[in-house]
Design a protein that fits this description.
This protein is α+β, with helices and mostly antiparallel strands. It is 29% helix and 25% strand. The N terminus is likely disordered.
């Protein structure tokens, strides 16, 4: 897959909405939280605080969770759903809402509904995307008027992948994932397989076999075909389901890879028809979906329409 460098090398100069204003969007409005894929993932080092330094390319997909928000006069944050095994105080959506509330000094509250489509522990960024959509939506609905950099700073405290969803563009990422350069990813279709396991990112990052000293590469290096997911062999060795998914997907595409720390794996196709032909050979065995890559997050498209 080829990649084109975006209009700016400045990690924070994303040309998207920067200061959303309150509108009369109703409580029935559905706010998408799109999936992401890592087209490659290298770990180049580790900070003293234990966080890993990485290089990756994020691409957004038109497959998403859906959230809705009802603003209340009561300052509490109420979740009108329950994720299995996740306490309210641990829920990243709850944490995002309360963090924004505290940062902006908001006295209003909210009731949040979640229609969950992205698997937990799948490497598609579901929790991070949910948190980012919560910050972007409530920034508007509560009238906080924080800019994207301020929202991204809140998001980074919630998870390393949250900022890319805040900025809402495909990006080359470094640091712990917060140093972002916009990139243009050619239009493509993705077939994603979902092994029914939950991979622990912390467990993978603590594995002694994980390569943590990848030589840094450039965007040009990536364009010329360099780049792998260093977490893939670790996860495949520990999870036979992931290894099998990679093998089956590799039989229908030469461009298959695991995303993030797994467990989902994906293949890249030039057309929807090619993706569907491949899926027809695998759908009886695997859960999965076909999605088109996006240029801009649908959350930002919503915000732009209300300006």
């Amino acid at each position: 897959m080829c990649l084109a460098i975006g209009h700016s090398q400045d990690p924070i100069s994303f040309s998207i909405v920067t200061s959303p204003k309150p509108t009369s969007l109703s409580a029935e409005t559905k706010w998408p939280a799109p999936a992401k894929l890592n087209l490659f993932l290298h770990i180049t080092g580790q900070r003293e605080d234990g966080f890993h330094l990485l290089q990756t390319v994020f691409v957004l997909l038109d497959f998403a969770d859906q959230l809705s928000f009802t603003v209340t006069d009561n300052p509490g944050v109420e979740l009108d759903y329950q994720l299995h095994g996740v306490k309210k105080e641990q829920d990243i959506i709850y944490r995002a809402a309360t963090a924004l509330q505290q940062q902006a000094g908001i006295q209003k509250g909210v009731k949040i509904q979640l229609d969950k489509h992205l698997p937990m522990g799948g490497g598609l960024g579901g929790g991070s995307s949910d948190a980012a959509t919560t910050l972007l939506a409530l920034n508007q609905l509560w009238g906080c008027e924080l800019d994207l950099a301020e929202l991204a700073e809140i998001g980074l405290n919630l998870g390393a992948d949250v900022p890319v969803f805040i900025y809402g563009q495909n990006a080359w990422a470094e640091g712990v994932g917060e140093q972002l350069i916009p990139v243009e990813v050619p239009n493509a279709w993705y077939l994603v397989l979902i092994p029914e396991i939950n991979v622990s990112t912390a467990q993978i990052f603590s594995d002694p076999q994980l390569i943590r000293d990848c030589p840094p590469i450039t965007i040009r290096d990536f364009l010329e075909g360099q780049g792998q997911n260093v977490c893939e062999p670790i996860v495949a060795a520990q999870s036979p389901e992931v290894a099998e998914a990679l093998q089956d997907l590799g039989a229908v595409s030469s461009k298959s890879r695991m995303t993030g720390t797994g467990a989902c794996v994906f293949a890249v196709f030039e057309s929807e028809q090619q993706a569907r032909q491949a899926w027809s050979k695998l759908s009886a065995k695997w859960k999965g979906f076909i999605a088109q890559g996006l240029e801009v997050s649908p959350v930002h498209e919503m915000l732009n329409r209300t300006q």
